[in-house]
Amino acid sequence: MESRSNDLHVLIVGGGSAGLLIAQVLQKVNITCTVFEQDITPFARPRDWNFGIYWAQSRLDECLSDEKRAKIVTVQTDPSYVPSESSVMPVHNGQTGELMKNLPAPWSLRIHRRRWLKMLADGIDIQFGKKLESIERGEESVTITFTDGTKATGNLLIGAEGAHSVVREYLFGAEEAALIPSPVVASVTICKISREASLKLRALHPRYIITFHPNGVFTWMSKDPANWTRMMMQTWRSEEDTGLMGKGNEEVKLKTWYEMGREFGPPFDEIFATMDPKSPIWHNRLGYWPTKPWDGKGPITLAGDAAHPMTFHRGQGLNNAITDAADLLQHLRNMKAPTPLELAAAVKRYEAELVPRGREAVLASNENTNAVHDWATMMDSPLFKGGMAKEGDRIEVPIEKKANKVQTS
């Protein structure tokens, strides 16, 4: 661990990926931090998503200790899967079933949310059941109050509590901080399908599949081999959401899946038709917020989806959150002394890089989301043309993979 002072104390609101990654980098430079999470337990939310790391592998290595770096492969949806330079993500025509393209996805990781968060939380001071109510800032400190009446004071507050960030709302006001609604809606389920349908899907690819349908429906299908469950997602353009938004209405949501499934060719029609009728389904309209600077608000900053909430069709969210943490680490290491003044200067340098990068990622992701729901423009979308990497960027190969390649070449 690097030598720094414990006199500084950083408050992090949000115990998801961004908040815990930030906590990990603060730990690396020996700056005390506390993570405050509004959920009452680490895994209170029933949605057990999985998500991808496509180009930020080396930046992730920067954020973690040697011990945690060694555990990354174990928190994949399939820990037996060995990422390689030749890894791809197949794209199929949903109507005909034909393979349209194998998108390059070298060294990509598919992460199981709960295993990932458990790994990142290890060794971090986390307080649960802490819903943020108000913020009071001073020149070198900030105090936050929670709905249970408790308070905490630190030298810096980092809002990392996701797309609907209370900290972002404090910085900008409710209207300016609000998400911009996308014309695209998403329906996501964690479900089981028939064994036959599951084997057919697995035969196409062991981890995941994307389909584009000429009618404008985009689907994503991935699996957890531990219990043969599937994370499946459908997105499409819709002006109305009658009967789909909010909790409940599971029968209406499932009926939508069945009806859309009839438009698909084999084997995808069978997959939709055999979904477990008890499957939980979440439906919402996508939203985004092009990142903008938040100067002059005292010792407060943002990270992850709080700073750059974006649509997900190119899988850029987690990769940018990792980059946030890695960039912050670099600036913390360049502090001349462990003082509130130096900490504030480091955060300013961090924000100067984050704001333009976040804005570009948000706008590019939104453009891509619109493109993949229009058959005429889908073939020219950044996703179809460039895969999941950042446009114009090389893939960042994990540090240990680079070492292995040198040794074996």
Automatic annotation (TrEMBL):
Keywords: FAD, Flavoprotein, Monooxygenase, Oxidoreductase. InterPro entries: FAD-bd, FAD/NAD-bd_sf. Residues 121-333 form the FAD-binding domain. One of its GO terms (molecular function) is FAD binding. Its cofactor is FAD. Pfam families: FAD_binding_3. Signal peptide: none annotated. It comes from the Eukaryota. This is FAD/NAD(P)-binding domain-containing protein. It comes from Hyaloscypha variabilis (strain UAMH 11265 / GT02V1 / F).
